[in-house]
Write a structure and sequence with these properties.
Blueprint: H1 9-56, H2 62-146
Amino acid sequence: MKRFQFTLETVLRWRQEQLRTEELKLERLHLERSAHLKALAGIENSRRQEETAVLASPSVGGTDLVALDAYRTRARASIERVRKALADCAARIEAQQGVLVEARRRCRLLEKLRSRRMEQWRRAFEAELEREASELHLARHASQGRS
């Protein structure tokens, strides 16, 4: 009997490659999200440090307070930009997770089909071996009976 050959092996490999690609896309989105979170934390820490430095100063003048207010305004704008980027990234992550689930489903479908076909082939192979063993056994008995 010939060896097992899955006719959709090329399609399965292609689906597996698609799956790996989609996993990498999701990983990049998670890295982007982490970078946004790090930027957000950095802006907030910097804002707190500036406020603490100005307010802890022994003599706080009006220009210092005006500069601090301007800095807070810029920090709030930066925080808002980063939060919008985070929301956009979260939406893209959610969409990519859906794409990844579908890619996994397609891949598993072909893997299950391959597994079933291999099991069918294995059963047919074992049945053929059994038939050949039976024929060999009968042939031996027939040749021993003539001797």
